[in-house]
């Protein structure tokens, strides 16, 4: 039984002297306030849940605004109430419309929450007008809270204006003196300083000192807009000391709402009782982890994708690929009909033998055959692969892949664009892409590929004028995106271990082999050899880790 905590008397405007008519509370609030003390009298225990009230705009796209605040608070174990200042129509492309909420209705929302549930910390986001700021300040005077975190949202990451002219004056005169933590991004810091340049670390430090003079107890200048820097550093200034919070830049299209999420995470940590510097550190960690876990999220077609705030509760990235398992890239058999003809076997026989030897995925690759023959070969091979439950993809030819309902397709850089292939094949087919460079890998990921084939790692004669990238080039491609990677090009029994040696990029899943499997008298035995060598290579790296 929780010890009955002495409930703070509800400080209600009616007992606090005159309150401007525009925000005089409606009588029933008085009853609700009284009921809280009634509960205390009959001894009901109550768990003291940390509470944040967010006063911000609604982002229809779900990534920023009160949506980001609610999810961030939920992820951090804090109860979040809301007072909506504006509705916005926005998505991953930008802001298409803003509808400010009438300020008297903003006042009603604030009173409803603060006169009943109350708040430990208030966090503000989009405040579209000076009247909105004045209304908030009046209510804060009547319902004081432990801390006020202000994210001075004026320009969204997508570059859209989110606050009307004239709010700077109200912000400076009314809200900043009531602010405990102010969290401007670089464009917002510049706006607060009348357009001064805030684009370097040194200028961030100077801005923190100048903005601190406007009244906030702490200023946190966020460095997410630092261009050309791999260090996403934020600077916290308390009037005497500067504290820097560093993080490596995370390459991701999903950065919408990062600022809102950082500020609401700070508010949540303060509500849980952290000191400001601990709160900022914890919030920075949360945003970094959330960005990392959101990289693979693909929602919307614009460049401003949302974060997966509740990534600790769900693992969408694996859901997104239920049709494809990265470890199926372990031994990737690429058929070659001329080799199979040379050894007197059909492609489907070769497919059966290589799967029985341990191949984990098969690619039917035909550069010469007529479409009709290619389709027949693909259908016969697919039938075999389906019997063993091994995925089978078609090289280059989207039409053949569609015609035989293959499990997917493998595209070269000059083939049908990934987005078109995805639009045609749908979300449940496998799309692999050949990539030689980090840029190609980044693009493959952003456009929705499931895996990357990278090489040629070694010189090969199964593909004409194929630039060799070496193990180093392979690793650069691996590290450029979260996509699983299979190494290809001149892979033989005697160099598999070099390719798979540890420390190995976590994206590298296996090797693709052509002549090492099919220019052999016995395909099944060849596949078994590759599987044995891979097992040693993986075991070695595992044992080395141990
Ligand atoms: N690409 C990135 N990689 C790592 N951290 C980032 C990245 N972009 C922003 N951040 C961090 O996210 C937080 C929000 O910063 P920022 O994006 O500048 O705010 P806003 O969303 O208001 O523009 C800061 O802690 C910043 O350092
Ligand atoms: C309703 C609303 N509030 C805030 C932001 C800023 O979000 P960000 O700058 O992180 O994209 C936004 N885009 N929409
Ligand atoms: Mg941002």
From TrEMBL:
Domain Thiamine phosphate synthase/TenI: from-to ranges: 331-517
Reactions this protein catalyses: 4-amino-5-hydroxymethyl-2-methylpyrimidine + ATP = 4-amino-2-methyl-5-(phosphooxymethyl)pyrimidine + ADP + H(+); 4-methyl-5-(2-phosphooxyethyl)-thiazole + 4-amino-2-methyl-5-(diphosphooxymethyl)pyrimidine + H(+) = thiamine phosphate + diphosphate; 2-(2-carboxy-4-methylthiazol-5-yl)ethyl phosphate + 4-amino-2-methyl-5-(diphosphooxymethyl)pyrimidine + 2 H(+) = thiamine phosphate + CO2 + diphosphate; 2-[(2R,5Z)-2-carboxy-4-methylthiazol-5(2H)-ylidene]ethyl phosphate + 4-amino-2-methyl-5-(diphosphooxymethyl)pyrimidine + 2 H(+) = thiamine phosphate + CO2 + diphosphate
Family annotation (Pfam families): Phos_pyr_kin, TMP-TENI
GO molecular function: ATP binding; hydroxymethylpyrimidine kinase activity; metal ion binding; thiamine-phosphate diphosphorylase activity
CDD domains in UniProt: HMPP_kinase, TMP_TenI
Residues annotated as domain Pyridoxamine kinase/Phosphomethylpyrimidine kinase: 59-304
Chief location category: plastid
UniProt key word Plastid: yes
Keyword check for Nuclease: no
Family annotation (InterPro entries): Aldolase_TIM, HMP/HMP-P_kinase_dom, PM/HMP-P_kinase-1, Ribokinase-like, ThiamineP_synth_sf, ThiamineP_synth_TenI, TMP_synthase
Compartments in which it is found: Plastid, Chloroplast
One Gene Ontology biological process: thiamine biosynthetic process
Key words of the record: ATP-binding, Chloroplast, Kinase, Magnesium, Metal-binding, Multifunctional enzyme, Nucleotide-binding, Plastid, Thiamine biosynthesis, Transferase, Transit peptide
GO cellular component: chloroplast
Cofactor field: Mg(2+)
Pathway connected to this protein: Cofactor biosynthesis; thiamine diphosphate biosynthesis; thiamine phosphate from 4-amino-2-methyl-5-diphosphomethylpyrimidine and 4-methyl-5-(2-phosphoethyl)-thiazole: step 1/1; Cofactor biosynthesis; thiamine diphosphate biosynthesis; 4-amino-2-methyl-5-diphosphomethylpyrimidine from 5-amino-1-(5-phospho-D-ribosyl)imidazole: step 2/3
Its biological purpose: Essential for thiamine biosynthesis. Bifunctional enzyme that catalyzes the phosphorylation of hydroxymethylpyrimidine phosphate (HMP-P) to HMP-PP and condenses 4-methyl-5-(beta-hydroxyethyl)thiazole monophosphate (THZ-P) and 2-methyl-4-amino-5-hydroxymethyl pyrimidine pyrophosphate (HMP-PP) to form thiamine monophosphate (TMP).
Family note: Belongs to the thiamine-phosphate synthase family.
PANTHER family recorded: HYDROXYMETHYLPYRIMIDINE_PHOSPHOMETHYLPYRIMIDINE KINASE THI20-RELATED (PTHR20858:SF17), PHOSPHOMETHYLPYRIMIDINE KINASE (PTHR20858)
Official protein name in the record: Thiamine phosphate synthase
Organism this protein belongs to: Riccia sorocarpa
